[in-house]
Design goal:
Elements: E1 2-7, H1 14-17, H2 20-27, E2 32-37, E3 50-51, E4 61-62, H3 64-77, E5 82-92, H4 95-102, E6 106-111, E7 116-117, H5 119-125, E8 128-131, H6 141-152, H7 165-171, E9 185-186, E10 189-190, H8 200-218, H9 220-224, H10 230-253
Parallel strand pairs: 1-2, 1-6, 4-7, 5-6, 5-8
Antiparallel strand pairs: 3-4, 9-10
Helix pairs in contact: 3-5, 4-6
Bound molecules: 6-chloroguanine (6GU).
6-chloroguanine binds near residues 87, 132, 136, 137 and 140.
Length: about 260
C-alpha cells in the first residue's frame, strides 16, 4: 500500500510517520508513505502556490499548475493509485471507505489549503473527493493523517493477530465492549467478576451484552442499521422482557409502592 500526500506543509507528517503503528508499518514495509511539497512544483523565484479568485471574493485559491505538476509526478511513481482530493465537500469517510482504500494499490492524497482548489484540478486530476466530517479544517493535512491511520490498521499484518480484520467488521456496527486491566480493585471499584472467572463462554457472552447495551445507549443509529445476529436478537429480547417485567410490577403495585410513599 502506497500513500503519497501532496501538501504545502510536508513537515507536518514527520512526527506522524515516526510514531506507533504507522512507524512500525513503514519499518516492516507494510506501507510506503511520503509527503511531497507542492511548492517544489511551483514556478518562479517565490514558488507561489495560491492566487486570488477570478470574479473576486475573499480568500486565496490553490493555483492549478503546481498541483498538476505534483499530481503528475505522483502518478508516475504509482500509476495505479487513486487520486483523492481532501475537501469538506467530499463524500464522508467512514470504516467502509477505509476498507475500500485498504484493498487498493495506493492513494495519492491531495491536501487542499486556503479557500479551495482551482476547479480544473478537481475535474481533470482527481478520481474522488473525501471529507472526514461536517466541519471545516484549515487544510486537508489532518484529514490525510486520519485516513492513513484508519486505512493502515486494516492492512494485513499491521496489527497483531488478535486485533485482526474479523473483529473489525464486527466493531464497525457495534461499539467495543468494556475493557479492564490490573489492578482488580481500583479506588474501590472491582473488575466485573465474570472477567476473572476464566469461563471463556461466559466472558464472551458478557462482552457481547456490554457491546450491545453501549451501542444502544450511545449510538442507537448503529444498532438500527445493523443486521442483528440471532444471539443479539435473543439478548435484546431478554432485555425487553426484563424491562417489561419491571414496568408491569410497578404498574400493579403502584408507582409509589417501592419507595413506601
Ligand atoms: Cl478533508 N478538508 C478540510 N479542509 N476540512 C475538512 C475536511 C477536509 N474534512 C472535514 N473537514
Amino acid at each position: 500500500m502506497n500513500f503519497i500526500v501532496l501538501t504545502i506543509f510536508p513537515e507536518m507528517f514527520n512526527p506522524f510517520w515516526e510514531h506507533g503503528i504507522i512507524k512500525r508499518a513503514i519499518d516492516r514495509s507494510k506501507i510506503l508513505a511520503s509527503a511531497v511539497d507542492i511548492r517544489d512544483f511551483a514556478e518562479g523565484r517565490h514558488r507561489i502556490t495560491d492566487d486570488r479568485p477570478y470574479g473576486g471574493g475573499c480568500g486565496m485559491i490553490m493555483k492549478p499548475e503546481p498541483l498538476a505538476g505534483a499530481i503528475r509526478a505522483a502518478i508516475k511513481k504509482t500509476p495505479l493509485s487513486k487520486r483523492i482530493l481532501l475537501t469538506p465537500q467530499g463524500r464522508r469517510f467512514d470504516q467502509s471507505v477505509a476498507r475500500e482504500l485498504a484493498s487498493s494499490d495506493g492513494v495519492i492524497l491531495v491536501c487542499g489549503r486556503y479557500e479551495g482548489v482551482d476547479e480544473r484540478i478537481c475535474h481533470d486530476f482527481i478520481d474522488d473527493e473525501i471529507s472526514i466530517g461536517d466541519y471545516v479544517l484549515t487544510g486537508g493535512e489532518l484529514a490525510a493523517m486520519v485516513i492513513i491511520d484508519a486505512v493502515t490498521r486494516l492492512i494485513p499484518g499491521v496489527l497483531g493477530g488478535k486485533d485482526s480484520a474479523e473483529k473489525d467488521s464486527f466493531s464497525e456496527s457495534v461499539l467495543e465492549h468494556a475493557q479492564y486491566t490490573r489492578p482488580s480493585t481500583f479506588e474501590g471499584i472491582d473488575v466485573p467478576e465474570v472477567l476473572l472467572s476464566g469461563n471463556h463462554q461466559e466472558i464472551e457472552k458478557w462482552r457481547l451484552e456490554t457491546s450491545l447495551i453501549r451501542t444502544f445507549l450511545k449510538r442507537r443509529d448503529l444498532l438500527e442499521n445493523r443486521c442483528l445476529s440471532l444471539r443479539e436478537i435473543e439478548i435484546l429480547k431478554k432485555w425487553c422482557h426484563d424491562i417489561e417485567k419491571i414496568v408491569y410490577d410497578q404498574s400493579i403495585h403502584g408507582p409509589d409502592a417501592l419507595s413506601g410513599g
